[in-house]
Design a protein that fits this description.
Length: about 180
């Protein structure tokens, strides 16, 4: 990404956000009970931001190397149609999702936190790392959030993009009367 591009120029091109799950939509901890039943904690404000992003006419997708029924359930709750689990090598899967969504890499923001996310972060129009991401991911990211994974990083990214596009505040104009 050229440094001469303004944040507004970058944001104007973004039509789709792809996000990792563990460490981005969650805090990265894997919690399993004695029977091996897994649970995850999702931050409710991230979920609202995803819904607002989609309501504004933009696409959102999930791309994760793990496989969990919890991810499918959360995606269903949020109306996320594009979910790819078990993606050990993420870039080819991300390209497939982009094609299915009808977007080119320059129109995509990818939010990640760890080494498997780096190739996708480098290949898209806007690579974002959460505050508590691996050093290597933060080094290649165009933006690094102030919030950590599972603690509002997705909300922060959505809000920043939509503000730069001029469509964050209008989402609430009718709700305040």
């Amino acid at each position: 990404m050229e440094d001469s591009q303004s944040e507004v120029d970058i944001a104007q091109r973004i039509r789709c956000i792809l996000s990792d799950v563990d460490g981005v939509l969650t805090d990265g901890r894997l919690i399993m009970d004695a029977n091996g039943v897994e649970s995850k904690a999702f931050y409710v404000r991230d979920g609202l931001a995803i819904k607002l992003w989609q309501r504004a006419g933009f696409a959102f997708g999930l791309l994760t190397s793990r496989t969990s029924s919890i991810v499918v359930r959360r995606a269903d709750e949020l109306g996320i149609a594009h979910v790819r689990q078990g993606a050990k090598v993420k870039l080819p899967v991300a390209r497939e999702v982009m094609q299915a969504m009808g977007v080119i890499p320059e129109q995509v923001c990818y939010i990640g936190d760890d080494l498997p996310d780096i190739p996708v972060m480098k290949a898209v129009g806007l690579g974002v790392a959460v505050a508590d991401a691996a050093d290597e991911a933060r080094q290649v990211a165009r933006w690094v959030t102030q919030a950590g994974g599972g603690r509002g990083a997705v909300r922060e990214t959505v809000r920043r993009l939509m503000r730069l596009k001029g469509c964050w505040e209008p989402m609430f104009a009718n709700d305040t009367e």
